[in-house]
């Protein structure tokens, strides 16, 4: 395997998609998280299923899964991947909903972007479905929590 640097720049300094053809296909996993903070009364409407626009949690979950599958279409220079699983979990507590996306693949590059895209789309869907009730919602702390597989090994946020 040649050890070319993995970069989005070609020899002329122009943007390009990284060539991963020399990388081995291995099992890769990424977990990303985000928080959506809101007024407690908004959270109560969501949890009770009383939000005027319907089942907010189910819709946000589906939006996250769909976004992970379309990441290469919306993030420039991102590789299209064969995802083996996408799970989006939403947990309500106090004044927020914590979103966790877990994405796996057996491919030549990682799924960090897919996991981050999934939590972002789920968070934006929550906001969109609830903005008529609470325009002050805040999407915070979108971040990678865990990554495994590939050349760079394992990462766990502290």
Instruction: Say which CATH homologous superfamily is assigned.
Output: Molybdopterin cofactor biosynthesis C (MoaC) domain
Total number of helical segments? 4
How many domains? 1
Radius of gyration: 18 Å
Q: How far is the first residue's CA from the last residue's CA?
A: 33 Å
CATH hierarchy: architecture: 2-Layer Sandwich
How much is the average pLDDT?
A: 91
Q: Tell me how many strands there are.
A: 5
Query: What is the topology, as strand order, of the major beta sheet?
Result: 2-3-1-4-5
How much of the sequence lies in strands comes to: 25-35%
Secondary-structure-derived class: alpha+beta
Order of helices and strands: EHHHEEHEE
For the record, the CATH class is: Alpha Beta
CATH T-level topology: Alpha-Beta Plaits
Q: How does the major sheet shape up?
A: 5 strands, antiparallel
Helix amount, in percent?
25-40%
Instruction: Point out poorly predicted stretches.
Output: none
Shape: elongated
Active site: 128
Function: Catalyzes the conversion of (8S)-3',8-cyclo-7,8-dihydroguanosine 5'-triphosphate to cyclic pyranopterin monophosphate (cPMP).
Subunit structure: Homohexamer; trimer of dimers.
Catalytic activity: (8S)-3',8-cyclo-7,8-dihydroguanosine 5'-triphosphate = cyclic pyranopterin phosphate + diphosphate
